[in-house]
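Key result, reporting period 2: structure in, sequence out.
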């Protein structure tokens, strides 16, 4: 089954959905086209402390509940950052066959280790750990050679009426937001049946 997934690395629900899809991929033979888009291009790369409002505390509880339902632990970073460098690096990782490894490491850096994935040093560290050549990756990021790829993802999101992440497109059928592992399994199975 071919799926398109719109995601951003600063979205905790995208991390949960990514983990759920990784599990389901083995079971349901999914062919996933990952399209990274910036949901908050206004956030600074050096990071910005998150405020502790009642709404943000309720959101944090919701995130922790969704993570637990998926058998995950998650540490919310406590700051917001810009994901553009990480998204461009992920497009470079695709060209080297290292996407999934890099994808997981960037999420873990932000949501497990509370590292700033808006900083070049952290992105390069994840790149090296995923098997990418650090010099090539740094040249790609400083030269912005994958800038157009992230822009193409943004256009694809607009043409698919994507207003938030995660959004999954199964055939012509969109699924918005994080779903429980069981709901996601059922939705994908239904989409497979419809396309047969």
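The corresponding designed sequence is given below.
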């Amino acid at each position: 089954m071919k799926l398109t997934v719109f995601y951003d690395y600063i979205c905790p629900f995208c991390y949960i959905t990514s983990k759920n899809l990784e599990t389901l991929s083995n079971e349901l033979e999914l062919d996933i086209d990952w399209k990274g888009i910036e949901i908050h291009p206004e956030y600074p790369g050096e990071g910005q402390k998150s405020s502790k409002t009642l709404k943000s505390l309720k959101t944090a509880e919701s995130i922790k509940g969704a993570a637990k339902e998926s058998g995950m632990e998650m540490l919310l970073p406590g700051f917001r950052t810009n994901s553009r460098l990480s998204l461009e690096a992920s497009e470079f990782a695709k060209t080297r066959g290292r996407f999934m490894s890099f994808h997981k490491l960037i999420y873990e850096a932000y949501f497990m280790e509370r590292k700033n994935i808006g900083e070049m040093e952290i992105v390069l560290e994840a790149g090296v750990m995923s098997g990418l050549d650090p010099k090539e990756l740094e040249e790609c990021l400083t030269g912005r050679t994958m800038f157009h790829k992230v822009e193409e993802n943004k256009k694809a999101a607009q043409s698919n009426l994507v207003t938030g992440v995660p959004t999954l497109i199964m055939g012509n059928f969109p699924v918005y937001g994080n779903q429980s592992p069981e709901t996601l399994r059922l939705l994908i199975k239904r989409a497979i049946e419809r396309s047969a």
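The mean pLDDT is 94. Residues 2-195 form a domain with the Glutaredoxin fold (CATH 3.40.30.10). This case is discussed further under Risks and Mitigation.
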